[in-house]
Each structure stands twice: as C-alpha cells, then as structure tokens.
Amino acid sequence: MGDRPAGKLPFNSLQALREEADGCTRCDLYKHATQTVFGEGGPMASAFFVGEQPGDKEDIEGRPFVGPAGRLFDAILQEVGIDREKTYVTNAVKHFKFAPRGKRRIHSKPNAGEIKACRWWLDQELTLIKPDVAVALGATAARALVGRQVPVMRLRGDVVESVEGVPVVITVHPSYLLRIPNAVDKKRERERFSEDLRKVKALMSG
C-alpha cells in the first residue's frame, strides 16, 4: 500500500485512490495519526483547494476542512459565490502531525520529506480531477503544488503555475485568519481572503 512508483496513475476513480490511501505508509506520520484524511469533492470539480494537513478534528473524523478553519472557509466560499459542489478540498499532507501536550495534540509543521512523500497522492488527485485552478492555502500547500518554497505573503493573490501546469492562486490558510487577535486586522485580512477567492472564482469554468 502507498509504495507505487511516482509518475504512474494506476487509479481510474477518486474512490479507488481514496481506498489505496487508507493504507498509506509513504512516510512515518501514519504511525501516530488516527487515519488518513483524504480529499473530498466531485471528480469534475473546477477549483482544487489544498491546505497544509488535517487538524485534530479532521484526524478524528477522517474528513478534511471540518474544524473551525474549515467552517470559516465554507462561510467565505458562500459569501463570494463559489459553489461548494464545484470544489475539491484536500491537504498537502494527509496524516495529522502533532506533538502531545498532556491530553492535547498540538499541530506540528510537516517537513520537506513528508511533503514530498505525500506529493504523490496530490499528483494523482490533480490528474484525476483536472481542475481549472488550484489554490494553495498557505506555504506548505504552495510548496507542494509549485515544487519549491513560495513567499506566500509577497505573492498572495498572484497566479503561478503548478508542476503539472495548472494555474495556482496563492493565498493564506483560513486558520491564519482565526489566529489574528486584533478585530480590525482580522476584518481586513478576511476581506483580503475574500478577494483572493473572487480571483479563484473568475478562473473557474461555468
């Protein structure tokens, strides 16, 4: 499971790919995570959103973007008029990486090796879906899609090209908005994120 050579596409459906990913051992993160958290969305999705990794709630439920950041993301999608049915959401790394703190599990940033190992799954998702546009939600997602480190704050709102040639809109992760303590700054950054998603909407077909 999960050790097929990169560059080959042995799957003809997202369901088959998801089932294969359930047993992924391409890096060591599977040893401590509850389960693989694979992407969700239709096979004809126009916009392909990539986050960093599952959080604690996603790890437990086995679904991406279901925590507080995911709920904020859904709300802003609705505000800017992006149909959730036309999106696919996934993560650059599909197992939760964390450091235990008592009874809590604190998010730890994936390293370059873990991103590279999981990039194989992301490649299969992109190949099957063929979206009009991909969206990098944060630095880890940008690195996975573009193949190198990307200065997110400097390129935020810009369109670059993925390894596969898909247009990629660079923006922040919704969790960034939740961490802003000042109400005025939070409102401003939410408006900027909404504007980034309007650029995504303009690149979507239909």
TrEMBL record:
Protein name stated in the entry: Type-4 uracil-DNA glycosylase
A Pfam family matched in the record:
UDG
Which PANTHER family does the annotation name? Answer: TYPE-4 URACIL-DNA GLYCOSYLASE, TYPE-5 URACIL-DNA GLYCOSYLASE
**SMART domains, alphabetically?**
UDG (SM00986), UreE_C (SM00987)
The region annotated as signal peptide is none
Q: Which organism is it from?
A: Nitratireductor thuwali
Give the similarity note.
Answer: Belongs to the uracil-DNA glycosylase (UDG) superfamily. Type 4 (UDGa) family.
Q: Keywords for this entry?
A: 4Fe-4S, DNA damage, DNA repair, Hydrolase, Iron, Iron-sulfur, Metal-binding
Is Ligase among the key words of this record?
Answer: no
Name all Uracil-DNA glycosylase-like domain ranges: 38-198
Q: Mind telling me which CDD domains this protein's record contains? A: UDG-F4_TTUDGA_SPO1dp_like (cd10030)
Instruction: Answer whether the UniProt record assigns the keyword DNA repair to this protein.
Output: yes
Q: What is the lineage of its organism?
A: Bacteria, Pseudomonadati, Pseudomonadota, Alphaproteobacteria, Hyphomicrobiales
